[in-house]
Request: fold
Amino acid sequence: MPEIRIGCSPVPPHRRSYFDRFSFGEISQTWMDPVRPQRLRAMRKLMKPDFELVVTAWRWLTQDPLDERGAAPLGLNKAHTGMLQVTDENRQIWALVAQQLRASRAHSVLLKTPNTFGPSKTNRTALTQFVKEIIQPGDLQVIWEPRGIWDYEDALEQAQESGVLLASDPFTDGAFPEQLADKAYYVLTGPHGQARFREDDLLRLIDFVDEHDEAVTLVVRGDDRERVASRILRLLETDTGLGEEEVTLDDEAAAVPMASVDDDSVWDELDDDSAWDKVPVEEGDDDDGVFDSDEDELDEEEDEEK
Reply:
């Protein structure tokens, strides 16, 4: 069986028990708005050294600016933001994302592109150039999660050409993909045509993962993400998949409600922002420089919209 990382999205920023149980997590809160670096540094102190994090890039880098309400942040030209354009505006936005990566000591960043970012020549070129010219990844793993009309094979081929790792939901089409990437990043939002994961769904998933030769990451989203992820962990920890005692998901947990693949909550679901206030920050750990002034501008914009 390949090396497997299991975690949830969003990761609870302040709960040490989560970091002890799992080996991975997505910081999806950063998709809506940047998280202050001192909060990320404080959260990192709660984790084991080998805990892997993925920071979700701010939506202003990837979303269609025509779909965004209000003015762009930081006084930027709205038309020159998003859609992975190689612009000065997107360079400034990426600088804030990069600061969060450094603060959290994350080795991966997730780019979520919208429905309007389809498989056109323009968008294919944009993905490749954005990664090469703005991100300049080096040792950073760039993960790309496309929406819209991309099919798995086409998206996988584009990801390989652009030097990124494709994030996909293996349950989306009802049958697991036949073409397996060298490394795989699977997002679990719910089985195709069903509202709930059942025991046999998870066992099929484990059999599918076992076919991979390289490392596999499983990230669970949805209201009961930790329960589903914990169940997958337990199944993987035994030779038979059911352990010494044949423990299955009980009636309450057998049907674990998950968000619909087409539901925007799959993309927008975030922990309550107040959760970040529970992360202990040491006195004097507030040296974020321009990030603080940028955040002040964001706060002012939010106040104006209200």
Observations:
- The two ends are 52 Å apart (CA to CA).
- The first strand starts at residue 4 and ends at 9.
